[in-house]
Design goal:
The structure is a single chain. The protein is of the alpha+beta class. The chain is 38% helix and 22% strand. The longest helix is centred in the middle third of the chain and has 18 residues. The radius of gyration is 28 Å and the shape is elongated. The chain starts with 18 loop residues before the first helix and ends with a helix. The structure holds one RNA strand.
RNA sequence: GCGGGUGUCGUCAAGUGGUUAAGACCUCGGAUUGUGGUUCCGAUAUGCAUGGGUUCGAAUCCCAUCUCCCGCCCCA
């Protein structure tokens, strides 16, 4: 035997026994999202590298060190690390801004990020997500969050925590960033290496550093005062408080988390995450927010938008496995041609039917039938002579011999 | 990218330097030439992630690489 080739690090086969669980995520998504008026969209899994550099943001870890990028015919292409940029590209390219707002889209599929694999994190993983375009009112933010909560509820997940925050608009956020940088300037050399990096790239991320020495710095009164100040402008504050009031009305339980920043550059105003306590350190099942500037940044008309994505592997790990369905029937017979014909006839009627292709002994066939099917259809010499089939319910052992054309009604 | 652990059959595992590497499940065959799910019997790793090294002798000790897991970073 020659050397076997393994799946590459951070990727996984989704095997037949896992497929029912994946079908559940997809079919519940189709069902719930359709009720909110969302249409599915499928975009390519690779795009121009520039789409992600401009879309996701070139200060983000995702773009800086996690993308699978390759050259082909002098073009730089990238396996999508997330799907918002791709959906926005398609929205613009297909003139969807001419459709009457809101335009509601959903998707599911594989994403690729070059990260160190661990529990709940792979290099190829799957996301299901939604995007809503054209509505700037907080009703959109609220509906999208409600949709996420109801999707999770429909899957059977109730004990999850919704966290929300507002990042403000470019104007008020830049002012806030400037203030943070100013007040931390004297302490710059005392910050950890990560924080020194973040200081320039994304000062908002400084706030939830776990290093003790940094935490101490952020506890200093004059610094704490700046960090905890309500920096967002009146309009943003109004938007945020309306969102909260809608969530209250709709009975969505949430907590505010000022440290919730999110790593993608395109967010403004509302950001949110939904977390589970049963996932270890990779505990976010859902992340999203508003991204009012992205469509314009990617060359489209100014279009407000809001959306989220969920990690499907993480969802599956929180849910009980879905059992595979048994066959409707297994034909037990030592007459392959007759067995073949019976199986085909029932298959044409929509039943799932198998029979033994190797003509094993009767008892072996029945044993197999009991493992894989609900009914055994016994087709021996006696039955063939009389044009009948013995239908055996394998759960109750009940057996009836009926005319061949009556079999269908018993399954 | 950094730090710590891990790896024996398809699966779960025993084995911690000394003859043929336990056991269980799964799979396959037989007991049983038309009645299964129970039972009984049998088969299935010349090999212990991979490659080197130490030793008379290595699954066991050492080194390297890889995997998966845990934490950091980040994220779904």
């Amino acid at each position: 035997m020659s050397k076997i080739i393994n799946v590459i690090k951070g990727t996984k086969d989704i095997l037949p026994k896992d497929i029912p669980s994946w079908h559940r995520l997809e079919s519940v998504a189709l069902d719930v999202f359709s009720r909110y008026g969302y249409k599915e969209i499928r975009t390519p899994i690779f795009e121009a590298t520039e789409l992600f550099a401009r879309g996701v943001g070139d200060t983000t870890d995702i773009v800086n060190k996690e993308m699978y990028t390759f050259e082909k015919s002098d073009r730089s292409l990238t396996l999508r690390p997330e799907n918002t940029a791709g959906v926005v590209r398609s929205f613009i390219e297909n003139g969807m801004s001419r459709l009457s707002a809101p335009v509601k889209l959903w998707y599911h599929g594989p994403m690729f990020r070059y990260e160190r694999p661990q529990a709940g994190r792979q290099r190829q993983f799957h996301q299901v997500g939604v995007e809503m375009f054209g509505i700037e009112q907080p009703t959109a933010d609220a509906e999208v969050i409600l949709l996420a909560v109801n999707y999770l509820k429909s899957l059977g997940l109730n004990d999850l925590t919704v966290e929300i925050n507002s990042l403000g608009c470019p104007t008020c956020r830049e002012a806030y960033k400037a203030k943070i940088k100013e007040v931390l300037k004297p302490e710059f050399d005392n910050l950890c290496e990560d924080c020194q990096n973040r200081y320039e790239r994304n000062p908002l991320r400084l706030l939830d550093c776990k290093v003790e020495s940094c935490k101490e710095i952020f506890e200093k009164p004059e610094i704490k005062k700046v960090i905890q100040s309500d920096f967002i402008c009146e309009d943003c504050a109004e938007h945020f408080s309306q969102l909260k009031s809608y969530l209250d009305t709709m009975g969505v339980r949430y907590s505010e988390n000022k440290l919730l920043v999110r790593g993608l550059d395109y967010y403004n105003r509302t950001v949110f995450e939904i977390k589970s306590n049963n996932l270890g350190s990779q505990n976010a099942v859902c992340g999203g927010g508003r991204y009012d500037r992205l469509v314009r940044n990617l060359g489209g008309e100014d279009t407000p938008a809001v959306g989220w994505a969920m990690g499907m592997e993480r969802l599956n790990s929180l849910l009980p496995e879905v059992e595979a369905e048994k066959l409707d029937a297994y034909v037990v017979s030592n007459f392959p041609k007759e067995a073949f014909m019976l199986a085909e006839k029932l298959r044409a009627e929509g039943k799932s039917v198998e029979f033994d292709l190797t003509n094993k002994k009767f008892t072996k066939q029945l044993e197999k039938a009991s493992k894989v099917a609900n009914f055994a259809l016994i087709l021996g010499e006696d039955e063939i002579k009389s044009g009948t089939v013995s239908v055996k319910n394998l759960a109750t052992s009940e057996q009836n011999t009926v005319k061949e054309n009556e079999v269908l009604a018993l399954l």
